[in-house]
Design goal:
With 255 residues, this protein is an alpha/beta fold. The chain has two domains: 4-97, Elongation Factor Tu (Ef-tu), domain 3; 109-215, Rossmann fold (3-Layer(aba) Sandwich). The protein is built from six helices and 16 strands. The chain has helices at 77-83, 122-131, 152-155, 179-183, 195-207, 241-244, and strands at residues 4-17, 20-26, 39-42, 54-57, 60-62, 67-73, 90-97, 109-115, 135-142, 159-164, 171-172, 188-192, 211-215, 231-234, 237-240, 247-249. The strands form three sheets. It has a seven-stranded antiparallel sheet. Strands 11-10-9-8-12-13-16 form a seven-stranded mixed sheet. The structure holds flavin-adenine dinucleotide (FAD) and FE2/S2 (inorganic) cluster.
Length: 255
């Protein structure tokens, strides 16, 4: 499946919480096939410090509108500049990049576990999992209630469980403390978020011998396997997250 460089057109840019915004960008030539878990390398124009493209997950795909949605957290100059995009602006991207999550089978019980902005690649995955006939549940973890991101779209694909570290909403603690996460026999767990969170979910899944894939957000520069700055240690040696990932089965990761 070929990747392409393209100027997408911004359809909408909506702030969804302090420091988080949702971009919708349209392809004028028709979207390529995009698999859940894949990402884009986004060019940020007009600033010398944003010479390198920024990797962003595909949050959602709408083939009727030929648009992709990106859920973005403002961290530095690149994401700050992206937050100022307006409808009609162009967004130059290379996409679709990376591998993808392995889709579940019919009737399988699937848990999507997202920490903060780590929920970004899980929405499109959840939709695809539903299309496969899987039963989807969602567990989202946030620092506190003021950091909770809009999860209304997740509600359309399955039951949503929330954990906050300070207990201001949902279960107090982490996703691994949510009773439904601990008590149910999931066939598959898919996860994205801060590395400590993914490691604890991987540990919980490994102990119960549950199939588990995580999407890594290692720092990236080139995004095409040339600079080796995104290498991760696996049972198959050191591999580039940008080309061999970002999705890995926890059994292959030497964490
Ligand atoms: C495959 C992949 C998918 C991603 N998907 C998303 C997404 O959907 N939404 C989103 O908001 N972000 C996502 N990220 C992270 C995003 O790429 C970075 O936050 C962004 O590049 C920061 O650019 P910046 O110019 O704003 O900040 P910089 O000025 O480049 O960095 C600001 C601070 O953020 C830290 N930082 C930069 N990149 C990362 C990273 N990957 N992980 C943790 N800390 C980082 C830097 O160390 C620095 O402290 C993804 C990363 C990868 C590798
Ligand atoms: S980002 Fe350059 S090799 Fe992965």
């Amino acid at each position: 499946m070929g990747k392409r460089v393209e100027d997408l057109i911004i359809l909408a840019n909506r702030q969804i919480n302090q420091g988080f915004f949702l971009l919708e960008a349209k392809s004028l030539i028709g979207l390529p096939v995009i698999l859940p878990g894949q990402f884009l390398q986004v060019r940020v124009d007009n600033a010398p410090q944003t010479f390198l493209r920024r990797p962003l997950s595909v949050h959602d795909v709408n083939y009727e509108r030929d648009s992709v949605s990106l859920l973005v957290q403002v961290l530095g100059e690149g994401t700050r500049m992206l937050s100022g995009l307006k409808p009609g602006d162009t967004l130059n991207v290379i996409y679709p990049l990376g591998n993808s999550f392995t889709l579940p089978g019919k009737g399988e019980r699937v848990m999507l576990a997202g920490g903060g902005c780590g929920m970004a690649p899980l929405l499109y995955l959840g939709r695809k999992a539903r299309e496969c006939g899987a039963e989807v549940s969602v567990a989202l973890g946030f620092r506190n209630s003021s950091r909770i991101l809009d999860f209304s779209e997740f509600r359309k694909i399955g039951e949503v469980f929330i954990a906050t570290e300070d207990g201001t909403e949902g279960t107090r603690g982490f996703i691994t403390d949510i009773p439904a996460f601990r008590e149910s026999n999931w066939d598959r767990i898919y996860c994205c978020g801060p590395e400590p969170m993914m490691k604890s979910i991987a540990k919980a899944a490994g102990e119960r011998d549950i199939f588990c894939e995580v999407s890594l957000e290692n720092l990236m520069a080139c995004g095409i396997g040339a600079c080796l700055c995104c290498v991760v240690n696996t049972s198959e040696g050191h591999v580039c997250t940008c080309t061999e990932g970002p999705v890995f089965n926890i059994r292959t990761l030497l964490w």
